């Protein structure tokens, strides 16, 4: 299931990790595990944020997808199922 994750980092946690040099490792671990189709990094609501498009094999994988962001980065995470243009075309073709 293609899923868009919006991850907003806690500023205090992120500042500490940038200061001690662990932020890069934490982000790289998450990226290597999730293997996103796309990854973007930007400011959001005055915080550091990232948008990742990942393929989740099933609903149960939501847990293992979100926990590293919560545990390691103190992040606020939103998940939204999403489609490519081809997926939309396919879905529309099934309408009466």
Q: What keyword list fits this structure?
A:
single chain, 96 residues, alpha+beta, Alpha-Beta Plaits, 4-stranded antiparallel beta sheet, 4 strands
Outline the fold blueprint.
Blueprint: E1 2-8, H1 11-20, H2 23-34, E2 38-44, E3 47-55, H3 61-73, E4 76-81, H4 85-93
Short description:
With 96 residues, the protein is α+β, with helices and mostly antiparallel strands. Helix content is 46%, strand content 30%. The two termini are 24 Å apart.
Overview of the structural elements:
This protein starts with a strand and ends with a helix. The mean pLDDT is 94. With 96 residues, the protein is α+β, with helices and mostly antiparallel strands. The chain has a four-stranded antiparallel sheet, with helices on one face. Helix 2 (23-34) runs antiparallel to helix 3 (61-73). It has helices at residues 11-20, 23-34, 61-73, 85-93; strands at 2-8, 38-44, 47-55, 76-81. The chain has one domain: 2-Layer Sandwich (Alpha-Beta Plaits), CATH 3.30.70.
């Amino acid at each position: 299931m293609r899923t868009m994750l919006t991850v907003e980092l806690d500023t205090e946690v992120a500042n500490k990790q940038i200061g001690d040099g662990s932020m890069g490792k934490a982000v790289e671990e998450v990226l290597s595990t999730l293997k996103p189709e796309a990854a973007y990094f930007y400011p959001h609501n005055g915080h550091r944020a990232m948008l990742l498009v990942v393929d989740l094999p099933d609903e149960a994988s939501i847990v293992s997808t979100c926990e590293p962001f919560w545990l390691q980065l103190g992040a606020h995470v939103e998940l939204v199922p999403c489609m490519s243009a081809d997926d939309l075309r396919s879905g529309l073709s099934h309408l009466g």
